[in-house]
Amino acid sequence: MNLHFSIDARGLAAKERRLLKFLSRDFLRVFKRFRVYMIRQTSLTFRALKRGGSYRGVTWKWYKDQYTRKADGVTVPAQGRVRKVHGVGLVKGRMRPSGKRVTASSNLLRDTGRLSAAAGQTLSFRNRGKTMRMGTNVSYAEEQQKLRPFLFFQVPQDEVVLREMFVQELERAMASKSAAGGG
User: Fold this and answer.
1) Which residues, 6+ apart, have CB-to-CB distance to 86 below 8 Å?
2) pLDDT at residue number 7
3) In this model, does residue 22 exceed pLDDT 60?
4) Dihedral through CA 23, CA 27, CA 30, CA 35, nearest 10?
5) 2 vs 152: CA distance, rounded Å
6) What pLDDT is recorded for position 23?
């Protein structure tokens, strides 16, 4: 599962394409900086949506209810804590894949912490640094991404940040080129 960014230079004039070629080695630096930014945004997404809700344009639903009892019509939530019909005590929370039970303080997608720790950690470059892929190698990430998106590019906020990083890098490269006498 990956986010994919690339630079399309087809609409540029020949002089601009030469400049882009000269600067393309610096794109790796921009993409690496942007990766750090995206990892931070992903971390903030996990933190903001740990109990469900909306953040950065995506919505995560809280755990589904376990069932509705036929005896009294009470819907038992995922975390349980509803009196048993027969017997003493409360219904326990639903069992999670890790073997732990869902409680009122459970966090979404944080059962083991592997997914949030690995989000955005894989990074590859292609096309001489003009294409970046960022993602995670966790086996169940794609399935979870469909249910609760956590690795995504938000327009226009993330686009503005990426554009600003490119502008800063181009300005830096142009300043160093002119200081070196490359005019």
Assistant:
1) none
2) 66
3) yes
4) 180
5) 9
6) 65
